[in-house]
Amino acid sequence: MLQPKTPSRNRTRSEAKTPLTPSLVAGVNGVSLASSPSKRRTKSKSTTGPFDMSNPFISAAGSSRSRPGSPVKFPSAADLQRQAASGVIRKGGIESKLDVVKMDYVPPPKSELKRSKSTPNRAGFDHQDRFITTRDLESDIVAGFEKMHIQPQTVSPGHTARLVEATGVPLNRRILGFHEPPPSATSDKTLALQRDYAKPLYASRPGTLASSTGVVTNKSRKIPSQPERVLAAVNLMDDFYLNLVSWSCQNTVAVALGQGTYLWYAETGDVNTIAEAGEGLYPSSVEMSNDGSFIGVGICNGDVELYDAETAQKLRTMGGHQGQIATLSWNEHILTSGCADGSIWHHDVRVPRHKVMELLGHTGEVCGLKWRSDGELLASGGNDNVVNNAQGKAKWVKRNHTAAVKAVAWCPWQPSLLATGGGTNDASINIWNVNTGARVHSQKTPAQISTIQWAPHKKEILTTHGYPTNSIMIHAYPSMERVAEIRDAHDSRVLFSCVSPAGDMVLTGGGDESLKFWKIWEVPSAATKKKKIHDYDDRPQLNSTRSNVLSIR
């Protein structure tokens, strides 16, 4: 009879489980058991007994006393600590190899970062985010300004006194400070208000610059940012549609100021009064003849007056127009006038009945008028946004501009090219081939175009502009690339311009009542000029007005 087994909580669990089969039971019953008083097990080879007592799980049949349970010995804390230190833990007679953590991890103490004297101390800033500022900006800025004080504690009074004397800054005054914005350049509040209203019109236009001052040039082209000379032009009218300045081949400049017309001699700087308009009248256009001997003056009442430039004598008055004469142009003895009613008249200054032809091609005021140098074609632009090219009758009409066309100019070295510029709502340059009537080039600009000029000795185009840039721009031809720009050339709109006889200077007049002379181009050398004259010998003579032709009959 088998003895009861040792309870499971006191037995050591075997990892391998062998199934109990009948053959295994019979073999176990035939083994004799021998008990040992000690824990040490010995193998018994006796086969006389019915049981083998070396097997602790089988008791002798007929035994009346059950086998006592094995005592459980729990290791003490000292034993466990000693076993853990050696990496071996003994439990229930079975040894297990374990990776034992000998002690808890204690991070090493932080060593203070050694910095050079030039490295700022970041103590107190470690808790801040690297990208999000959490510091008190106001206190930092105030501290920064205190460091900029002209008299720090470490500076000697003598050095401070010398510094104040050298810089001219008061001792207790900061060099940089916040103040009210400076007043506008012009004292006329109406002009400043108009400029503010016009600025949004050009915000998205190509060519607009972030800065509104200075000179913008490319690497191959440099022009001065300041004029060569400035003349005060008191009472110069700020009117986009008028033409009040003309520069003759004799190096004299005619300009209309208020009610008077004056002649300025560039070589001597003298000024001569030519005429004074009647009460309530004013000159609205001025144009000198091609030889510089005569001055045509258009009056706001529709009259056209003719003066001798040398003697300042009035030669005649040619009336008939019903509105102001905004523009004039000479072709030998023919003086052509453009009127506010849209009509264009040809005046033969030699005969008493001066009106020899009338052109009706505009429905608005004619503000741009220019004869070609050979006198074959006449180009006109008006407030009706129309460009006409006529010789006797209209040859072709162009309506590509979307604003008034005042800027009109013929190319001096390629007579088939005509350049026109539009006003505020257009602000574009168009180049036309008059032989075919095609528009060969077009270029947007950041502001209204008041005048346009071709360079006599260079393939470039100069334009003057009004709001909001008040600039002078130079474009290369035929690429139309911007070569240079003078921003804020005048304090107000740049309204008038003309080129000097030598072709190197440009005179501009603005609404700020000033005339400025700009050195834009270089005069070609004598060898280059001689070659050009030789190349142009076969060309027809340029439009000229000779004194004997202008003799009045």
State the main characteristics.
elongated, mainly beta, disordered C terminus, four-stranded antiparallel beta sheet, 553 residues, 31 strands, five-stranded antiparallel beta sheet
Computed structural class: mainly beta
Number of H/I helices = 6
Biggest sheet features: 5 strands, antiparallel
Arithmetic mean pLDDT: 77
Strand order in the sheet with the most strands = 3-28-27-26-25
Which range does the strand content fall in? 25-35%
Poorly predicted ranges: 33-49, 93-100, 203-213, 533-542, 545-553
Measure the end-to-end span. Answer: 168 Å
Provide a descriptive summary of the structure in words.
The protein is mainly beta and 553 residues long. It has helices at 22-29, 77-86, 137-147, 157-167, 189-198, 526-535; strands at residues 88-91, 94-97, 214-217, 229-232, 245-247, 252-257, 260-265, 271-276, 283-288, 294-299, 304-308, 314-318, 325-331, 334-339, 343-348, 355-360, 366-371, 378-382, 387-391, 393-398, 405-410, 417-422, 428-433, 438-444, 449-454, 460-465, 472-476, 482-487, 494-499, 505-510, 514-519. The strands form 8 sheets. It has a 5-stranded antiparallel sheet with strand order 3-28-27-26-25, with no helix packed on it. Strands 4-31-30-29 form a 4-stranded antiparallel sheet, with no helix packed on it. A 4-stranded antiparallel sheet has the order 5-6-7-8, with no helix packed on it. The protein contains 6 helices and 31 strands. It is elongated, with a radius of gyration of 53 Å.
